[in-house]
Amino acid sequence: MYDVIILGAGPAGISASLYTKRANKSTLIIYSGESELCKAEKIDNYYGFENGISGKELYNTGIKQAKNLDIEVINEEVIKVEIDNNFFRVITNNNEYNAKSLILAIGAKKNTLNIDGIKKLEGKGVSYCAICDGFFYKNKNVVVIGNGNYAISETNDLINVANKITILTNGEKAPEFRANNVDIVTKNIKEIRGESRVQEVCFQDNSIIKTDGVFIAQGTAGSVELAKKLGIIMKNDKIVVDENMQTNIKGIFACGDCTGGLLQVSKSVYEGAKAGVSIIEYLNFNNKK
Ligand SMILES: Cc1cc2nc3c(=O)[nH]c(=O)nc-3n(C[C@H](O)[C@H](O)[C@H](O)COP(=O)(O)OP(=O)(O)OC[C@H]3O[C@@H](n4cnc5c(N)ncnc54)[C@H](O)[C@@H]3O)c2cc1C
Question: Closest Cα partner for 153 from 103, 224, 78?
């Protein structure tokens, strides 16, 4: 049981960890590969680098800085977070970890796909959260778009609810996953069709499958998907926090790009520091140490 698990190793997550670790709170950082920062060729507008610094270098240096402080930093994909009696269970592609508190610092990436019809039918049969919306498809036929660990996790959340689930990999490799009511189709998708609601998926070869719902689970779970599943209040796909970076769920804090506003390193570092300090107070107040 960790005092705090921090999801994300970008400027927000690493900054938060520097405070929690120095306050002697057991801290685990989980991140999944690179961050948005790695796409920045050069950061010229952040304090302290007279010649600027590449985004990738800043990201990797942040992770090294945390490791040098003996903070546990692991590279695993977070698939799900569950709340269990005021504690939090983080489920990754490899393991499960428990903590008394959680900081979401997983950036602003939204799990969206550039396929015709998706935008138009969002909320009309296109969903981003199986655990939130799955019940509406009781005994119906649905598709899950994706082929990774996250798509399998979403499929598992639908297995005992839907009549039939078809995993659409959209041209990607089929996952090694088998279940009685699950089919896998690897063809490229052309369009999601329907008037007032989703009705069918049309493939590039013009073949069609009828469906009642489409669940998007391409790639990894982002802040929007994880937050929605936890019942965290969002506004325009950004996590709503108070002045202490606390969400509406006790013990869950958020910082950085996932809370919206100025999407910059400096704002992420500030919010990370604030979340770290707030969580120390939270843990002390709740006498959980
Ligand atoms: C092209 C580009 C150029 C930019 N240029 C600048 C600039 O010049 N100056 C500036 O200040 N800002 C710039 N930015 C913005 C800056 O990169 C972000 O504001 C900053 O990185 C946000 O930090 P963060 O910690 O909130 O999130 P991120 O840096 O996005 O970190 C998110 C972390 O969450 C992890 N994660 C995500 N999903 C999962 C999951 N399912 N499981 C486990 N881990 C997960 C990622 O691996 C990563 O470690 C630029 C951004 C881009 C894209």
Answer: 78
